[in-house]
Write a structure and sequence with these properties.
This protein is an alpha+beta fold. It has a domain of about 70 residues. Strand 1 and strand 2 form a beta hairpin. The mean pLDDT is about 85.
Amino acid sequence: MSERKQINFTIIPDEEQGGTRTYANFCGVAHTPFDFTLTFCEVMPLSEKEIRAAESEHVVRAPVKARIVLPVQFVPTLIAALQENLRIYSESHSQQAPVPRDNEPVH
């Protein structure tokens, strides 16, 4: 039986391989027993017509900018990294990060 060898390394994004930046101001989260799907959208201000349609249909359509599927095992690491970065951001900007209220949806 072969032994597993542990190798420590750092992953660095290779910007020369076409890394692009995409803006999103909404993230929907869904999951299966095997993975989590993060769907990033850009929600623009609504026109009067769109507001009326949203009031009657209770739906606002927003273009999907990216859909990322993550294995379940990766999610705790992602959450920890986001929490750490939010802590550093809050400390450096001397403000508390906004926390959703009980009646607000968390997506």
